[in-house]
Amino acid sequence: MADATACAGRVERLRALMAERGYDAVILRNNPDLRWLTGAERTFDDEVAHTAFVTADGLWLHTDSRYYNTFVERLGADCAWRLDMEIVDAPAWAAARVRETRSRVVAVEDTCDLAFYDELLVELDRAGVAALTPRLHGDICDLRMVKDAEEVALMREAQRITDEAFDHICAYIKPGMTEQQIRAELENYMLSHGADGLSFGTIIAAGPNGANPHAQPGPYVVGEGDLIVMDYGALYHDYHADMTRTVAVGEPSAEQRAVYDAVRKANETCEAAIRAGVIGRDIHQLAVDTICGEGFEDCVFVHGLGHGVGIQIHERPNFNRRWDQPIPAGAVVTVEPGAYIPGRFGIRLEDFGLVTEDGYEPFTQSTHDLVVVGR
Fold first, then answer.
1. SS3 135
2. Measured CA distances, 291 to 261, 294, 300 (Å)
3. How far is the C-alpha of 221 from the C-alpha of 216, rounded, in Å?
4. How confident is the model over 321-344, as pLDDT tens digits?
5. Residue 370: band (very low, low, confident or very high) from pLDDT cuts 50, 70, 90
6. What is the pLDDT of residue 4?
7. What is the DSSP code (8-state) at residue 215?
8. Are 118 and 124 in contact (CB under 8 A)?
9. Which uninterrupted H or E stretch holds 287?
10. Which residues contact residue 299 at a Cβ distance below 8 angstroms, ignoring those fewer than 6 apart?
11. Using one digit for the tens of pLDDT, what is the confidence trace for 178-218?
């Protein structure tokens, strides 16, 4: 059942934005935004099949028969949303709501496809309605940056499952296994121990494959002396976890330990520096400078240090060279420095957690020590 109090707070934040901008109504079709506003968990899939219409005093949601009963179950009989599965195209339905509410400034989130937007203008004309239709440009994504208590609780649970899976897979890995075998075991454990799904396609990258940050698991056979980069997460009630750990198969070499220690230092230095108000690119640069200061400038990561996590695995805000805005309290962001030596090995160490006024609170509980597996 949706958390009515949490969802009411999200709707009020949207309505405050509408009042500030002078919008009479907002039309939304982006599933992550609708999940955030309605609280209807485990209802949305990959299809763009729903349309929300929000005014200062009304909430309408159009769907179809494939989802209607699920919405009723998830939202409850006394929910604030007026559910509708009328057999009508979404643009015509939205135009009818504009006419019904006499709205004159109707904002449309720019995640809507152009075909919907163009047809909406046609339907408004057919309905004899003259309305301005300004675009929202990521405004809902900005609202979603700051997580409420329910969202934080769901991500903590997703990470609890993810941490347990790490302990399991470390005991499971043996030399002679393929990356795909390890992936299958890791994913099966999460799905068998409380996860509703996977946050993203699991990365298991062993030996030289670990030098490719987004390597896909394949037939590579893990052997003594390999490092394995494992980047994965559990999905729980539509909220994601994201964690990376690098483990050693057998005793690591002195070089491997030295690079690992540099990456760990970057992770922990950045996490100690994070608090509300820091600039994303400054934290990114701190990680780069830390690894370079340890003598590994030739293999320091060039991807972003971190990204927001929530209903989507990649959200705002970011720790990267382009994010020049302060990070707000309540954001949930990853910290994932790495070092990569092409043809040999790679190392990444990633936590994700909550930015507070006073610091950074990782949800991730798995050790930062270099774990040796396969003994």
1. strand
2. 9, 5, 6
3. 14
4. 999 999 999 999 999 999 999 999
5. very high
6. 87
7. P
8. no
9. helix 280-293
10. 259, 339, 340, 341
11. 999 999 999 999 999 999 999 999 999 999 999 999 999 99
Q: What is the distance of C-alpha 219 from the center of its chain?
A: 29
| Cα gap 325→319, rounded to integer Å | 10
Does the domain formed by 149-373 have CATH 3.90.230.10?
yes
Length of the chain: 375
Contact of 161 with 141, CB cutoff 8 Å: no
Statement: residue 77 has pLDDT above 80: no
Evaluate the omega torsion of the peptide bond into residue 328 and state whether it is cis, within 30 degrees of 0. no
Identify the CATH homologous superfamily for domain 4-144: Creatinase/prolidase N-terminal domain (3.40.350.10)
Checking if the pLDDT of 133 tops 90, the result is: yes
Q: What are the distances in angstroms from CA 375 to CA 171, 174, 370? A: 9, 7, 14
Q: What's the whole-model pTM score?
A: 0.96
Q: Which amino acid is at 8?
A: A
Two structure tokens written together for 269 = 């230095």
Q: What is the DSSP letter of 224?
A: T
* Domain residue extents for the chain: 4-144, 149-373
Nearest to 308 by CA among 320, 321, 297: 320
pLDDT grade for 2, boundaries at 50, 70 and 90: confident
Tell me: pLDDT of 76 over 90. no
Count of C-beta atoms within a 10 Å radius of residue 372 = 13
135 pLDDT band, cuts 50/70/90, is very high
The amino acid at residue 139 is D
Q: Are 246 and 338 in contact (CB under 8 A)?
A: no
**H or E element that contains 53:** strand 51-55
Using alpha carbons, select from 327, 321, 372 the residue that is nearest to residue 353: 327
Nearest to 25 by CA among 97, 118, 113: 97
For residue 326, what are its two tokens? 């302060």
Give the confidence band of 375 by pLDDT, cuts at 50, 70, 90.
confident
Question: How much is the average pLDDT of 10-14?
Answer: 97
- Angle of helix 90-101 relative to helix 114-126, nearest 10 degrees? 50
